[in-house]
Each structure stands twice: as C-alpha cells, then as structure tokens.
Design goal:
Blueprint (H helix, E strand, L loop, with lengths): L4 H8 L2 H9 L4 H4 L10 H14 L1 H11 L13 H4 L5 H21 L7 E4 L3 E4 H25 L23
Antiparallel strand pairs: 1-2
Helix pairs in contact: 1-8, 2-7, 4-5, 4-7, 5-8
C-alpha cells in the first residue's frame, strides 16, 4: 500500500484510544507481566511509545526537513522507558501517551512536508520522510501486536492442548 498522510494519521490517532480501552483498569497481572527474561510488559510498551513521541518521530521529521542528510538523527534509546516511567501508574502512562500523540499529530499537520526529502539515520543511512512516517505507523502496529501476544502468554499453560491452535502463543519474543 502506498503511504498516504491522511490515512496514516487516521491510524496513528487511534492507537492511544485502542490502548486506553484495552488496558485501563486491568489488574497488574495483565499489564505488568511479560513473556519472561528481557521481554516487555504492556506497561513497558506504553512507556516506550511515550518515549518515541517525545524523542523520535517528530524530532526526526523536523531534523530531516531542516537539515536533510547533513545532520544525522540522534540515536533512539529503546530502553529509556524503564528509567523515565519508574513509579508511574499505567493510567498515568496512558494519559501521557494520549497527550503526547495528540501533540505530535498537531505538529505533524503544521509541518510543510516533502515526503521524498532524505535524512540520515545513524544505523540505516539514507531514509526519506515517507520511510520515517510509514515506520511510525508500522511501529504502532508492531507494539499492538506485541501487547496482544504478551497478554495471551499469561494463559499459555492454562489453555492446555489448545496451544497448538493458538498462533498468538507460538510467536517468538520480540521487544522494541
């Protein structure tokens, strides 16, 4: 599918609402558990999405539009949420994510966009604004899928032999 800004914004503006409806008020057993090891809980994922709003999508778009490839993007700290959100409730994170996303989309709409303009990613090299903005949407989808998988994992043992029919329980562990 070809990237279309209006369609992308329609998806991006729904993510906070989806997460709020899905996670707000659930017991910690559903929102603070992960799949073991270094994997992330739904709480961690919401924190990660906030960090992305504050330091990634719009700051990178602005840098790309202002400097092109001459000034690379700052490196993104995929684990910043662990420090930034210490002591906060999930409800606080959901509220903050909704506010941050609304502000990001407000700023996006105010930018004079050249989707073919190139910027420089520190690891990937040359990327277009179209690549960056399409990645923002796919990033949301990745983490919505991750939350679904992590939550399903909580009943992995309880489903017994049905595990063979539940594809969500067969996925590997992916964070970030």
């Amino acid at each position: 599918m070809e990237y279309r800004l209006e369609e992308a914004v329609a998806v991006l503006e729904r993510t906070p609402k989806v997460l709020d409806a899905w996670l707000r008020g659930l017991p910690d057993g559903w929102t603070r558990q992960n799949e073991g090891g270094e994997t992330w809980s739904p709480y961690d994922v919401v924190g990660h999405l906030i960090v992305g709003e504050e330091t990634d999508w719009i700051p990178r778009a602005r840098r790309l539009l202002e400097h092109g490839e001459s000034v690379p993007f700052d490196k993104f700290d995929r684990l910043a949420q662990f420090k930034a959100n210490k002591g906060k409730t999930l409800e606080q994170l959901l509220d903050r994510f909704a506010e941050a996303r609304a502000e990001s989309l407000r700023q996006l709409r105010a930018l004079k966009l050249d989707l073919d303009k190139k910027g420089r990613h520190p690891a990937l090299g040359s990327v277009t604004l179209r690549n960056l903005l399409a990645t923002w949407v796919a990033h949301d989808m990745t983490h919505l899928s991750q939350i679904c998988r992590v939550m399903a994992h909580q009943y992995r043992e309880e489903v017994g032999p049905w595990v063979q029919y539940l594809g969500v329980l067969k996925s590997g562990h992916v964070s970030g």
